[in-house]
From TrEMBL, chain A:
Domain Sulphur oxidation protein SoxZ residue range list: 7-102
Taxonomic source organism: Hoeflea halophila
InterPro entries: Ig-like_fold, Ig_E-set, SoxZ, SoxZ_dom
Pfam name, any one: SoxZ
Protein name (database record): Sulfur compound chelating protein SoxZ
Residues annotated as signal peptide: none
SUPFAM superfamilies, per the entry: E set domains
Superkingdom, taxonomy of origin: Bacteria
Automatic annotation (TrEMBL), chain B:
Entry keywords, A to Z: Signal
Protein name: Sulfur-oxidizing protein SoxY
Coiled coil, from the record: none
Pfam family, one: SoxY
Amino acid sequence: MASKPRIKVPKSASAGEVITIKTLISHEMESGQRKDKDGNPIPRQIINKFTCTFEGQMVFQCDLDPAISANPYFEFNAKVPASGTFKFTWLDDDGSVYEAEAPIEVK
Amino acid sequence: MQLTRRNVLGLTAGAAAFAIAGGRISPAMASAEDAEKMVMDFTGGATPAEGKITLTAPEIAENGNTVPVSISVDSAMEGDDLVESVVIFADGNPNPAVATFHFTELSGEALATTRMRLAKTQNVIAVAKMKDGSFFMDKKQVKVTIGGCGG
């Protein structure tokens, strides 16, 4: 249901620098409020959790409610202590997990 | 159409029925009190103070389906001066909860941007929970031209 996520992380940073990360994933985020043309409610299906970790340590996490727009977009900051990899995880209501990674190099 | 007694009566009844139907508030819609209650649930009954947190949202949103919203909290994000989480509520949506952000020392700055749905013109509320147990709040009214809840 969701397509490959898009992530923007700088390729390099200086140690301790605070960088900005942007992520976007395609997902309908069906709110559960809408009805189909026969008047039956369309069941809710959203991404309910987004997590960003750096080398296993939590950086940023968001619990999403149906009021988040389709194709959820996040922009947040992260402190880069050393070279490593950012891992991003999106959890779907149906149990699917969408993952992505982005490395960063400290000069 | 001639203005007979029968016609006038019919029109008046129709207009009255329309006014009732139009003015009826859908029971699915949350009220400001619900949002306030959710704020209280989050703070554990404490009234959040003003300041520290800044909520940025457009004054007028043409499309309620994607309304950009940003929060930023004035904090060093180190030691005890740390923002643990920030909750966003929209007090006129069917469900006031919008999102909860969790921050850590690795966040560097307590700052986040996302896009939300707004069903109608309403207040957007952001509440920050600090590590020392204090709470801060900011509120903005967003005028919505086209609601974002489908139907």
